[in-house]
Write a structure and sequence with these properties.
The chain is mostly beta strands. The chain has a domain of about 130 residues: Tumour Suppressor Smad4 (Sandwich), CATH 2.60.200.20. It contains three helices and twelve strands, in the order H-E-H-E-E-E-E-E-E-E-E-E-E-E-H. Strands 2-12-1-11-10-7-8 form a seven-stranded mixed β-sheet, with no helix packed on it. The protein has a five-stranded mixed β-sheet with strand order 4-3-5-6-9, with no helix packed on it. The radius of gyration is 25 Å and the shape is globular.
Length: about 190
């Protein structure tokens, strides 16, 4: 037998890719303690914490507006399933955390969707889960975004628009009230 045949079966590892963005990163360097572009192993029984306190958090954000512990990610396997997932929990008493527009208050938690955007304050994080089979650990792979992950979009008009496509708010802004006209008048 060759050494290839005797080698242990290689298992794939679940990897959480996280892309970070903050508008002031250039001048304030709040991500300077994060290890970008290198995969990092995290034991499956550890909770990955993100925040300002380097004694408690594995991933440090160097910003006084970030809570000591902002949020945590817990790796787990769904009951009666071979699927591995992450649970995200907001650990900040002051700042709400948003996951794909679902707002989490202090100690609220939800399953992390396989692809989502996590927001708090001016921070935007794109999280993408790459499935694997390993039960002992998972990996994180951090990236730095140069442009906002979420683009500002104007809010849609709250006024209903009739089928004609002309908003009734146009008429409300005019000085005189609408007047009737004969179809035959020019």
């Amino acid at each position: 037998m060759s050494s290839f045949e005797e080698a242990e079966t290689e298992e794939t590892v679940t990897c959480l890719h996280m892309t970070f963005y903050h508008p002031c990163q250039e001048e304030k360097m709040m991500f300077r303690c994060l290890n970008f572009c290198k995969r990092e192993q995290v034991r499956a029984d550890e909770t990955a914490k993100f925040g300002r306190d380097s004694n408690v958090c594995r991933y440090n954000l160097m910003d006084t507006r970030v809570s000591r512990i902002q949020f945590s990610l817990q790796f787990y396997r769904k009951l009666h399933s071979s699927e591995y997932c992450f649970e995200i929990k907001n650990l900040s008493k002051r700042t709400k955390l948003t996951v794909n527009q679902t707002e989490l208050g202090y100690l609220n938690k939800i399953d992390l969707p396989w692809r989502c955007i996590i927001c708090f304050g001016d921070y935007q994080i794109l999280a993408e889960v790459q499935q694997g089979e390993s039960v002992d650990y998972f990996e994180t792979h951090l990236h730095l975004a140069e442009a906002p992950i979420l683009q500002e979009r104007p809010l849609p008009s709250l006024q209903p628009v009739p089928e004609t496509g002309i908003s009734s708010s146009i008429f409300l802004c005019q000085d005189k009230s609408p007047t009737e006209m004969d179809e035959n008048e020019p």
